[in-house]
Amino acid sequence: MNIVIGGAGAVGRHLAEVLAGAGNNVTLVERQAATLQVLENELDIGTLRADCAHGDALREARVADCDLFVAVTDNDEVNLLAAGAAKALGAKRCVARVHHRAFLDTRTPNYQQFLNIDHLICPEYATAVAIARTLRNPGSLAVENLAGDRIEMQELRVSAKAKALGVPLAALALPKGVRVATVTRSDQSFIPDASTALAQDDIVTLVGEKSSFDAARRLLQTEKIKKKHVAIMGETPMGVWLCRALRPKHFAVRIYVLDQERAEELAAKLPHVTVVTADPTEPAVFVEEHISEADAFVALTSDDEHNILAAAQAKSLGTKLVVAVTARSTYLHLLTHVGIDRAFSPRVVVAREIHLLLDPGPVRVLASLVEATADVYEIVVGARAEATGVPLKDIKLPGPCVIAAVQRGDEVFVPGAEFQTQAEDRLLVIGRRDMKKPLTKLFAGK
To answer: Fewest beta carbons within 10 Å, which of 41, 285, 367, 430?
Structure first.
């Protein structure tokens, strides 16, 4: 594929390396000559010294002939303008990286729609969401690129006295916003049907709207949900997004910052969070704040080494779960060796999302579940497809699968039996690994 990348910062360089290494024809547009010279010596890519938001530069980079244009400079406005201009000049798909929360908001104005950009990426926000999933449920699974994190998956073990025991799924009063995607029983995993009855110690993968998970959990588990105590080090935007993603009903959150003015700002923004002006890596602070007794410690400052050392220290002193964020993905494989439970890199998040976008077809595989027993498919419905305009209850699906969610415009929901798909709907479907071709024929008409 022909790919043009605007911006040779840390994310742009990582993308160029990953995409060129996968055999794509990559052109990198950057204003700094010294940066380009280094990259020309290290990577097999084309380069252009220019401002990626300027029309002349985009024409010279031949964006009209590119399959994908990605704007990943450090300036949100430049990225939005560049991606919108590249789309207008003929680029097949355009992506813009943004940092500010306002640009991700799909309410008025919807910048993505207004500028005709195919996809917006915020690595910091996406990383915070992934960390929040891990803290809510270590077995939770990411559903990439679907509706701004409004649809989620979680794995739950069925308790001995659960209300769901022995009840066929068709008769189980699951919330409307949740579906059972897979069941693992005695090391055997399968996609259930309406007659499947759950048994004790089954591991169930639920998919649906986050707001419905608590009600579903009460059917599957008898244990009370205990509020988890989370300590966060770092006053970065990622830290703020993480605090917002951890609902006060289930989490008691403390965030540690060093600057008093920033602490006061966060206290006003995050009324459900305790803001502490202190360094949790100081031994006295660690003891006074009882961080060793926390359920999780998350280090996400802008300093990789500080995050790694802080997380390793917290683990060595007794904290149950420690998470470190590193900008440099080269560190990731090392962190388990120093006791860090989970590590996240925003660069890897961006690369993963871009890889998904490289598949231009109407049916894409987003993820695999339960040791590749099932795949998560994202489907763009075609106007002339067999299933378009037909109630779900009347569609003959190609084998066991679950239509877990629908995105129609800005609306996201779990469909009922009477729901009829329309052209351009995006479906989230859980099915066997071999179902891409029949699903394409049924829903996309190709």
So the answer is: 41
Asked if residue 383 and residue 314 are part of one domain, the reply reads no
- Residue 243, CA distances (Å) to 126, 133, 394, 402 in order: 13, 12, 43, 32
Give the chain's largest Cα–Cα span: 68
Minimum mean pLDDT range among 207-216, 378-387, 390-399: 207-216
Claim to verify: residue 115 and residue 41 sit in the same structural domain: yes
The answer to the question of residue 362 being in a domain is yes
Residue 331 lies in a domain: yes
Q: What Cα–Cα distance (Å) separates residue 130 from each residue in 86, 288, 321?
A: 30, 29, 15
- Clarify whether residues 58 and 30 are in a common domain: yes
Q: What is the pLDDT of residues 265-316, one digit of tens each?
A: 999 999 999 999 999 999 999 999 999 999 999 999 999 999 999 999 999 9
β-sheet bridge partners, residue 168: 197
Residue 62 falls within a domain, yes or no? Answer: yes
Pairwise CA distance, residues 4 & 24, whole Å: 10
Q: What angle do CA 425, 428, 434 make, to 5 degrees?
A: 115
Beta strands 296-299 and 46-49, pairing class? unpaired
Are 272 and 241 in the same domain? yes
Q: Please count the residues of the chain.
A: 446
Residues 249 and 286 in one domain: yes
Boundary of a domain, candidates 87, 121, 155? 121
Asked whether residue 58 falls in the same domain as residue 84, the answer is yes
For residues 244 and 102, membership in a common domain is answered with no
**More confidently predicted of 153 and 425:** 425
Closest CA to 250 of 219, 224, 281: 224
Spatial contact of 206 and 174, defined as CB atoms under 8 Å apart: no
Domain boundary among 121, 144, 174: 121
Q: Is the pLDDT of residue 85 over 60?
A: yes
Long-range contacts formed by 305-308: CB under 8 A, 24+ apart: 306/281, 307/233, 307/234, 308/335, 308/338, 308/340
Report how far residue 119's alpha carbon sits from residue 175's, in angstroms, rounded to the nearest whole number: 31
User: Per the domain annotation, does 199 fall within a domain?
Assistant: no
Under the banding of pLDDT at 50, 70 and 90, the label for residue 144 is very low
Domain span including residue 79 = 2-121
Is there a contact between 324 and 343 (Cβ–Cβ < 8 Å)? yes
The pLDDT value given to residue 145? 42
Note the pLDDT of residue 158. 92
